[in-house]
## 1
Amino acid sequence: MKLAICPDATAARQVAARVISHQIRKKPASVLGLATGRTMEAIYRLLAREHTEHGLDFSAVTTFNLDEYVGLPGTHDQSYRYYMQTHLFDHVNVTTAQTHVPDGAASDPDAEAEAYDTSIAASGGIDLQLLGLGENGHIGFNEPLSALSSRTRVVTLDCATLEQNAGMFGGDATKVPTRALTMGTGTILDSRETLLVVTGAAKADILARVVEGPVSALVPGSALQLHQHCLVILDEAAASGL
Ligand code: GLP
């Protein structure tokens, strides 16, 4: 793991956007793994600006998102497909065919999960996987006790995650879908490079366990210690527990 500790969250997001832009310029047909969550919003804003102002070209890029809520169609304003359209895809030159988000409305979610992994493999594999960190240590929706070798599958969300994401559902945790489709920890580890972005003091303790603790299924993010090319971008608040 390599750590880049930035003075504040704004700087951390700028560094993350620069790493992604560099990847696209270096390899225009990059396969990018993308994430959702509040941390990513400003990063996508910066990438959209880089496209508009400096011609960052997404025309040959393929994307695969980490996860999606089971039961939410892509038109639902809390689905991760909707998030991706509004925060990034609608602002850059990608077609829907180039972008992949697990289909939360699939009639057979298990088959959808299997097909998703097949589709990642058929694309040649993910070059750069962007990741956020849940306050319980999850990456994607791989909750504590997810097998380190897990593949894309249907999971039941932790109570802590329902609470953490309740803000997006009018503050009501009972409105958050209880199941999700997520790339597995093993799927994530297959990416050629991983980029974990963590900001804010609320994640300082869990970040310290991810980076310095034992590799354990209790803290799914700690699996990134096993990855050959993992860059962790932090602000000073998130790094304060190291
Ligand atoms: C959701 C996503 C995760 C993301 C997490 C962190 O749970 N499934 O992939 O890492 O949110 O979100 P935030 O950046 O809002 O703290």
## 2
Amino acid sequence: ADYRAWFEKHTAGSRASAAEAARYIPGGVQHNLALNEPWPLDVVRAEGPYLWDVDGNRYHDFLQAGGPTVLGSNYGPVREKVAELLAECGPVTGMLHSSEVRLARLIHDFMPAVSRFRMLGSGTEGVMAAVRVARAYTGRAHVIKVGGAYHGWSDQVVFGLRIPGTGSLEATGIPAGALRLTQEVPPGDLDGLRELLVANEEIGGTAAVFVEPVGPESGTHPVRHDDNARIRELCDEFGALLVFDEVVTAFRLGMGGAQGYFGVRPDLTVFGKCVAGGYPAAGGIGGGDEVMSVLEGGLTAVGKRAFVGGTLSANPLSCVAGYHALAEMDRTGAPGLAGRAGDRLRAGLAALIERYELPYVTYNIGSIVHLHTSGVLHLSLQDPDFFNQLGPRTEMLGQMSMAYSAEGLVTIAGSRLYTSMAHTDDVVDDALARFDRVFAR
Ligand code: PLP
């Protein structure tokens, strides 16, 4: 009740925006990340590790726009390059721009398994392209994904494909036919994956296996460290392409992404988020020369190649921002610094959980920090059923969400926190003092 009182007293501007939004926007928010109890915060300023709302409240920003800002929010040197570009040619012309080439070359240099890169408008589009390229390249139709993985919101690989145990569709508006060629295996179930690959041999084989290399939902369900290498072997054995969805991990886990981190080379890599340096229209697909040749073709080859498009794909604004952000991240060592901040945050949260003997669990992989507060005491991260045993998303989550905001903390749904280079020790320690106050209550 106190936290609700804080909202009523200090967030009148956000409340007014939310009331108007509810009238004109379905559900009152344009983006799930903005969902908040008792109402969304209207944020007007962002800088490094902080956000400010329209009422002047400052928050520690562990949302980091959902992941693309490893340098911290609204990083000045990248903003300046974007401003120069805008003054010169505006955000988009539809013609070739040198920034596209420089960005593709940088990605080629950093990512072990990427020789050629095609920029697209979002991670979702990158995944759609990967499905198409894999089918075109292999001449096969079936694709396999891992249960609980988020690969964007396209029909074929939508999140929460099936309600566990029922086999029925969870997603409204997607006809069962759209999922006819999509198959799912539980996280970490490599025997199940092998069985499926064997069974598919009878029905034309498998085009691709899609994985989030840190585990489904950015590692919400953790996987064993060597799972990726073993999936690589299985793909080789059955002639399926291995697709790494690196929308979150590329450049966040390191400049070589998860493929550098785990030392495993996928056939195709999907990009999003960081690839446009925290600016809009962030997506793409990369791979070796041969597999990427499926996307080749001049004016006369249209219709022969696998088609991808997008009016705003590879616009100069996204490419300038992406190029300069990646170059800065490499120069400053941002992924490593963000990762150290993630370690410090996780260690601090773990100490608080222990001190107050709370049924919570926290873990991280670099700058991707997970915090589950819905009742998971004594559950091993290696438990194959970890994901299903997380407690239900109860009213408590709404209470926690209010508590975090009132203490000046913004997270992803109270359960995931991204750190950035701007999360210095002092910043993390101040944030931990705020978590302390929430957990103490
Ligand atoms: N793949 C993963 C692993 C993601 O986390 C996301 C978005 O969060 C996507 C794909 C979809 O990317 P976008 O939101 O740019 O469409």
